């Protein structure tokens, strides 16, 4: 009996060892297969994160289109400087977000739509960027918009302002940190339009000018003003005498000017003494180089997109201080904060997505997204992805020790006050 019991005990032990060895072999085989699979993925350049998980590491590439030469060169360089400072501010100097490095590629559109398309295609196909930003010209930007949709990449529009960008030519991959012509118009009309006032407009003969005048006219007429003349000039012209003579003949109370670029009409407006003829001038305060030739317009009331003394917030304080340190004491100009705002918007979106650059997922996160900028809080309106933002009602004054006339704040126009109409067909 004892011998039989001993045999059963021995058989039980053997069964346990057999089970243990079988499990051990399965574990070793599974581990080997897993290791081979990882090696295979590494060799092929692919990654296999768990479902819904975004892996750290890698690079996020941003392609920035700007007019770094040509008529809008100063605008392009302001955007570039602001964008670089914005990335530094938004990432606390690390140039990383969600564990990924940020790389930026700048391309010069030369303010030519066909060049803009070539450069954007190069950024998308050769550089394989995850985002597009730009451009200085509305014409350049409108030419590039379809590429953002074709390649399914988010494009942050800055600083182009044509209403059609977020209106008739809108596609869901477009988000704009720049203000649009309608926002300018509301601010411009608020400064001068009221019942019985006669206004002539003067603008360049392309989308920026057309949209600007159209939006201003609607806003001014809503306030009771009458538009007595819409005058358009060749954007490449240097002599505006014939255009301004038409304005004089129309005898308006105000001439509202929509303009951008180095070849501005301010000198000829002064030479023809429009103000002495009883025609008051109103416009958006331009960048600092253009302000330097606006001394004849001191006392003018209009609006400003940005002047470094107008916003009162910590981000603008940082921008002004850092800009002075890096650019020989120069203050940020008209489009520098826009470049910074575009960079902040991208970083904030990537924080929300945990580094996922899939544009269709980012659209969901960015619609309605608010973020702090040098101009205060901006919000991407879900309907058309236009950033609602503050503008400034100003008066041009001469200040001691400053060469150019200075836009002095009358009052800040809130994002709610400057909210433009929704013009797309979304």
UniProtKB/TrEMBL annotation:
Domain Leucine-binding protein: 59-397
Entries under Pfam families matching the protein: Peripla_BP_6
SUPFAM superfamilies: Periplasmic binding protein-like I
Xref: CDD domains: PBP1_SBP-like
Superkingdom assignment: Bacteria
UniProt-listed InterPro entries: BCAA_transport, Leu-bd, Peripla_BP_I
The entry's keywords: Signal
Family per record: Belongs to the leucine-binding protein family.
Protein's name in the database: Substrate-binding domain-containing protein
Organism: Psychrobacillus faecigallinarum
Source taxonomy: Bacteria, Bacillati, Bacillota, Bacilli, Bacillales
């Amino acid at each position: 009996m004892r011998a039989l019991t001993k045999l059963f005990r021995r058989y039980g032990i053997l069964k346990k060892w057999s089970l243990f060895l079988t499990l051990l072999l399965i574990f070793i085989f599974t581990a080997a297969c897993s290791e081979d699979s990882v090696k295979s993925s590494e060799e092929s350049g692919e990654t296999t994160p768990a479902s819904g998980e975004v892996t750290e590491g890698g690079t996020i590439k941003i392609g920035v289109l700007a007019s770094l030469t040509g008529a809008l060169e100063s605008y392009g360089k302001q955007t570039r400087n602001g964008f670089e400072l914005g990335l530094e501010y938004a990432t606390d100097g690390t140039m990383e977000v969600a564990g990924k490095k940020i790389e930026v590629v700048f391309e010069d559109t030369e303010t030519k739509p066909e060049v803009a398309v070539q450069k954007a295609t190069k950024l998308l196909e050769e550089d394989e960027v995850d985002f597009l930003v730009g451009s200085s010209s509305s014409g350049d930007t409108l030419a590039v918009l379809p590429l953002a949709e074709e390649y399914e990449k988010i494009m942050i529009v800055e600083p182009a302002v044509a209403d059609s960008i977020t209106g008739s030519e809108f596609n869901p991959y477009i988000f704009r940190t720049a203000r649009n012509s309608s926002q300018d118009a509301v601010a411009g009309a608020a400064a001068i339009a009221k019942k019985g006032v006669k206004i002539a407009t003067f603008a360049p003969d392309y989308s920026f000018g057309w949209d600007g005048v159209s939006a201003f006219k609607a806003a001014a007429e809503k306030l009771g003003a009458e538009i007595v003349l819409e005058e358009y000039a060749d954007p490449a012209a240097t002599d505006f005498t014939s255009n301004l003579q038409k304005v004089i003949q129309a005898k308006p109370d105000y001439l509202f000017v929509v303009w951008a670029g180095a070849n501005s009409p301010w000198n000829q407006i002064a030479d023809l003494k429009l103000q002495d003829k009883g025609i008051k001038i109103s416009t958006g305060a331009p960048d600092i180089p253009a302000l330097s030739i606006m001394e004849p317009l001191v006392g003018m009331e209009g609006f400003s997109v940005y002047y470094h003394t107008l916003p009162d917030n910590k981000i603008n304080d940082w921008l002004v201080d850092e800009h002075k340190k890096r650019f020989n004491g120069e203050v940020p100009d008209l489009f520098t904060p826009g470049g910074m705002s575009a960079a902040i918007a991208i970083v904030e979106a990537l924080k929300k997505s945990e580094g996922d650059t899939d544009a269709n997922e980012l659209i969901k996160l960015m619609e309605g997204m608010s973020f702090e900028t040098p101009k205060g809080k901006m919000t991407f309106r879900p309907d058309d992805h236009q950033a609602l933002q503050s503008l400034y009602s100003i008066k041009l004054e001469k200040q001691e020790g400053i060469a150019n006339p200075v836009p002095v704040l009358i009052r800040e126009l809130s994002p709610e006050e400057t909210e433009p109409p929704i013009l797309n067909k979304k």
